[in-house]
Predict the structure.
Amino acid sequence: MKAVVIHAAKDLRVEERQEEALEPGQVAIAIEAGGICGSDLHYYNHGGFGAIRIREPMILGHEVAGTIKAVGEGVSRLAAGDRVAISPSRPCGSCEYCLKGQQNHCLNMRFYGSAMPMPHIQGAFRQRLVAEEWQCHKVAEGISINEAALAEPFAVTLHAVARAGSLLGKRVLVSGCGPIGALAIIAARAHGAREIIASDVMDAVLKKALSIGADRAINVADDPQALDAYSTNKGYFDVQFEASGNESAVRSGLGVLKPRSTLVQLGLGGDIAIPQNILVAKEIEMKGTFRFHEEFGLSVDLINARRVDLKPLLTGVFPLDDAVAAFEAAGDRSRNMKVQLAF
């Protein structure tokens, strides 16, 4: 089978790899669609992120969907021919965090396409993938395989919403409107947000934010003071989803959040300085959010029931053999939101 393998920064190859053997409780899937994630781009452009570096060739990818071709002994819920979205979250189920229901913090996590451990966890950008039955969620008739492959990044934002608490009737600021920020807008609206304001530094992504449900879009590069109007009376927003990883976005958010509001940090960046006096004086809760687990099933259910429409986020599909061109396109925020590979 063919697979998309990263060897070092800017060294991405489509290579032949051996298919895995099918074991009891597992299914063999023909992967059909795979979305390029921000972490995939970090591996491609920089050879890793933070202290995490590629130390051996690794198959990339974790946003995938496809059709089951064979099932192993003991599989009863799925059959050959079923279309499925595959959760890349594979916790051990027995460490202290798994036993507390915090599977996203599993000490022995095997998340597809991760260079954190050594040997690396090989990813899902391959023509055939063997997965556990419980990882796979059926895709409803009429839902495209490309929509199904968006279940993983949407699950990330559903976990962020869970971290924020109830959004019913809340005013929400989303800073950074790339794929995760855009999906946060959709997730917030689905969970009852009263008003959603989006901010970014690029008009193209802000236009997309308006089309998928934001009430107002603010280009903070063109108008750095535009958010100031929301700072009167100690702030306006109940929740901020910060998806840029940019220090200025965090600081601006703290200025316009109400007392006892919540800032949920989605975007990854480096070390930043924050005004502690504002955090303390307004009693703002600042929360991290990391991956997901049970939210993946909810993500697929919402897509299947057409409670959300993620299709507008898909801006490009490239054949597997054009993987390098696909990664280059995915890195161009002025033109693309979510780029997928067709396997």
Q: What stands out?
A: Residues 2-150+310-342 form a domain with the Quinone Oxidoreductase; Chain A, domain 1 fold (CATH 3.90.180.10).
